[in-house]
Amino acid sequence: KQEVTQIPAALSVPEGENLVLNCSFTDSAIYNLQWFRQDPGKGLTSLLLIQSSQREQTSGRLNASLDKSSGRSTLYIAASQPGDSATYLCAVPNSGTYKYIFGTGTRLKVLA
Amino acid sequence: DVKVTQSSRYLVKRTGEKVFLECVQDMDHENMFWYRQDPGLGLRLIYFSYDVKMKEKGDIPEGYSVSREKKERFSLILESASTNQTSMYLCASSRLAGSYNEQFFGPGTRLTVL
After folding, report:
1. pLDDT digits (tens, 9 = 90+) for A39-73
2. How far from chain centre, in Å, is Cα A1?
3. Cross-chain Cβ contact A102/B90 below 8 Å
4. Cα(A12)–Cα(A92) distance, rounded to whole angstroms?
């Protein structure tokens, strides 16, 4: 059974720092891995989708990497800003089904 | 720009009422999903649909039903609302399984049952 873990659960950093969020999964037979951002009281916004054949994907200050063999993905945020404060979740499709398995998220606070 | 919309951002209902939550996507996606999100419990799948009139139970279907009469619209129905159904409800859509099945979410409906 696929399980997805995100560490740390919460993170507080000063503005301008580069930071790394971690996502681990137990079953490496995944089609892709998706990173989301969620602001309080809002829906999830898709940030990046990494396909199983890719090692990394970039969008602006965000870079996500995928290492299927070790069951890990990282989301790198460069030069963090207070506007980056949100909860970040990762999700993988559950093998053989249409379902997605979500991590519990990392709550990020960037201090001005 | 891809879009998933939900009929209400906030909804307040009374115990025993029948509640309809509507979700519409404009991306011609085959899959549509209903989740609820509660503090400490994360996202939990209620129902999903992979085609018109097709549905499958998720992890917590009790007390809910769904309807998908058109490809773009997926409705969640609370037959008789109860206070333990107070939650944030999130709708999502995606293509069929594969490397490109990016999931897109709506803005959410905060439902309060009194």
Report:
1. 999 999 999 999 888 999 999 999 999 999 999 99
2. 20
3. no
4. 26
A44 and B92 within 8 Å at the Cβ level: the answer is yes
Between CA B109 and CA A27 the distance in angstroms is: 32
Residue B61 · residue B46 · CB < 8 Å: yes
Question: How buried is residue B83: exposed, middle or buried, by Cβ count under 10 Å (0-12/13-18/19+)?
Answer: exposed
Instruction: Name the residue facing A52 among B56, B99, B107 (closest C-beta).
Output: B99
- Give the contacts of A40 (CB within 8 A, at least 6 positions apart): none
Residue A41 forms contact with B (CB below 8 Å): yes
Measured from the Cβ of residue A100, the count of other Cβ atoms closer than 10 Å reads 22
Contact A43 B105 (CB under 8 A): yes
Q: Rounded to an integer, what distance in angstroms lies between the CA atom of residue A110 and that of residue A80?
A: 7
Q: What is the CA radius of gyration of chain A?
A: 13
H, E, C per residue of chain A: CCCEEEECCEEEEECCCCEEEEEEECCCCCCEEEEEEECCCCCEEEEEEEECCCCEEEECCEEEEEECCCCEEEEEECCCCHHHCEEEEEEEECCCCCCEEECCCEEEEEEC
Residue B98: per-residue pLDDT: 64
Give the angle subtended at the CA of B92 by the CAs of B89 and B96, to the nearest 5°: 150
In chain A, what residues touch B58 (CB-CB under 8 Å)? 99
In angstroms and rounded to an integer, the radius of gyration of the C-alpha atoms of chain B is: 13
pLDDT of residue A45: 96
Give the pLDDT confidence score for residue B110 in this predicted structure.
97
